[in-house]
Amino acid sequence: MAIINLKIWHKMIIGISVPSLIVIFGGLLSYEYTNDIKNRQGYVQLADDLKEKVLEVRRNEKNFLLHKTPEYYKYCLDATNNFNNFVDDISPEIIEEIGKEDFLLLRRSTQTYSALMPDLHEHYLRETGIVERVREEGRKLETYVTPGRHAKELSKDFILNLRRLEKNYMLFRDKKSFMELNTGLEQLKNITPFCVECAPYIDVVRNLFSSYNKSDSLVNDLQVVGSKLEEITNRIAISERRRISSFITSTQRYLLLALVLISLSGPFFVYRTANYIVAPIKRLAEITRKISEGDLTLRAPIREHDETYSLALSFNTMLDHLQLTHQSLEKSLELLREKQAQLVEAEKLASLGTLASGVAHELNNPLNNIYLATQTLYNEIDPAKNPEIVNESIKDIFSQTLRVKRIVGDLLEFARGKGPELKQIKIVDVINKVLKQMTATGEMENVKYNVLAKEDFEMPGDSLLLEQVFVNLFGNAIDAMDGNGALIITVDKTDDNIRIRITDTGKGIPDENMLKVFDPFFTTKEKGTGLGLPIVYSIIKKHNGEIYVQSEPDQGTTFTIKLPC
User: Fold this and answer.
1) I need a surface site. Which of 214, 324, 388, 401 has the fewest CB within 10 A?
2) How far apart are the C-alpha atoms of 34 and 46, rounded to whole Å?
């Protein structure tokens, strides 16, 4: 992590700066939203102005529709132009912010409204002329009826009632007055179908019907567009207020989020920073405690590159020197123990050798006499003239004497203190020679053996003594396999040593006997002396070599010899 490479005062600055940056970021964000709200308040005022101006247009529209005079038409036209100019003065940026689609619709509706107003005004002018003609024709019709120069069904009361219906229609302009006036015209037409004086009045009233229908249509279109203008401006105003409300809500949320972040991240960053500062010191304290308990392999991890770096480095250097000193002392102590063990073993073997040598010399002469006497007796007597028991006893004495002589010979060999006569020999030739001798005697009859060596390695050694080593080891292997199995001898070179591994497929050595196989007089054979492996061990040691044994019950045994080359 990058923070572990910083100095302690850098970490402290980071721990303080991160919450401060969060506060600054929250403040800037709040300022930006507050500024947006301020701008939006201007947009709301603009939307309210649009709404007020549309209401002014609609108020003048109602006055014009009520009075239908040029004066009110001028007021309405001024209000409409004023609204158009106000819309045209709004900048494209503001339009984009408020809502381009609404403004496009507002412009189209304004254009439609501005176009309908002159049409309606012109129609009202024409309508006024038609009204005057209706009134003129009505007066003519009254004048015509008064002298009585007409059909008797066409009375003055009928015409006056018709004129009353006419006035009602002009005043109310509703469906009822229209139906009543239209019915009166139909009655007039039915009463005097060929009345020339009545036809102009009927025609001009019909024109008034058409004019009023046209006026109503134009007024309806104008009011629809006016309502649409109100709807658009209301929508813009509502939309802007909603946006301001949304901005305020968002600002509150961000402020709350900033407060939560400060409340959570502030202590977190302070804790983490403190932990980064204290952690290396805690690790050094923990390592010091474990080292005081004796574990010198521990080292202070050098993770941070701050002020604790040099402390950890010096601490590890001190531990390295201390461990080297400790290892040197342990090696010296181990070497001392080994030398002491070797000295004890050497003294024990020397004492045992002295005893064995004395015993062997004391027994050797009587054994030779017994052996010679038995041999002479065996050669001189006639087996046919003596009882069978005498012959068997002589043979038994002879064989037992040979066995005792071998034991005495082993004792003398074990007790011999003379060193080997070292000459350059080829170790594989020595091994093959022993195997050839043992094969000739029949010992290897049912044993399959194999010598694995890349070359015939040369080394300084006493070939006679080493032959005795291999005779003992191969003989023990044959005995362990009950004369039937496989014997593998591997010879190779490691560093400055020749390594010889002798592996059999015998019954193996029990775990409890592994530490005693090289002890003098230890044997598991009925007729063994227990001196074969001690003699092997002694010869190898005299060659400055080493011998090890590995064994698994029922899996076989491997003796490994290392001899300097």
Assistant:
1) 388
2) 19
With respect to residue 393, please indicate whether it lies within any of the assigned structural domains.
no
| Rounded CA separation 487/505 (Å) | 7
Cα separations in angstroms, 532 against 218, 458, 493, 542: 138, 26, 26, 15
Closest of 147, 210, 159, 213 to residue 185, by C-alpha: 159
Structurally, how many domains does the chain consist of? Answer: 1
147 three-state secondary structure = coil
Structural domain including 501 reads 419-564
Tell me the angle at which helices 100-145 and 198-292 cross, rounded to the nearest 10 degrees. Answer: 160
The mean per-residue pLDDT over the stretch 246-270 comes to 77
Residue 556's nearest CA partner among 509, 517, 512 is 509
Q: Name the strand (E) or helix (H) holding 94.
A: helix 92-98
CA-based nearest residue to 13, from 23, 3, 24: 3
pTM over 0.70: no
Secondary-structure percent of the chain, ordered helix, strand, coil, rounded to 5: 75, 10, 20
Q: CA 530 → CA 236, 266, 542, distances in Å?
A: 117, 82, 20
- Give the pairing of strands 423-426 and 458-461: antiparallel
What's the number of CA atoms in the CB half-sphere (13 Å) around residue 95?
Answer: 15
Task: Write the pLDDT tens digit of every residue in 94-126.
Answer: 888 878 888 899 899 999 999 999 999 999 889
CA end-to-end span of the chain, whole Å? 55
What are the DSSP E strand ranges found in 64-155?
none
Here the tokens at position 25 are: 């970021």
Of 560, 557, 562, whose CA–CA distance to 486 is shortest? 557
- Model pLDDT for residues 162-199, shown as the tens digit of each residue: 889 989 988 888 889 989 988 988 888 888 777 788 88
The answer as to whether 471 is a domain residue is yes
* Residue 22 falls inside a structural domain: no
H-helix segments, 381-424: 388-415
**127 falls within a domain:** no
Domain at 508, CATH number: 3.30.565.10
The one-letter amino acid at 347? E
* Nearest C-alpha neighbor of 299 from the set 310, 309, 313: 313
Overall average pLDDT of the 405-418 stretch:
58
For the beta carbon of residue 60, count every other beta carbon within 10 angstroms: 21
Nearest 10 degrees: CA dihedral of 240, 246, 247, 251?
Answer: 160
Dist. CA 280–CA 282, nearest whole Å? 5
CA separation for the pair 208, 195 (Å, rounded): 20
Torsion angles phi and psi, residue 460, rounded to 5: -80, 130
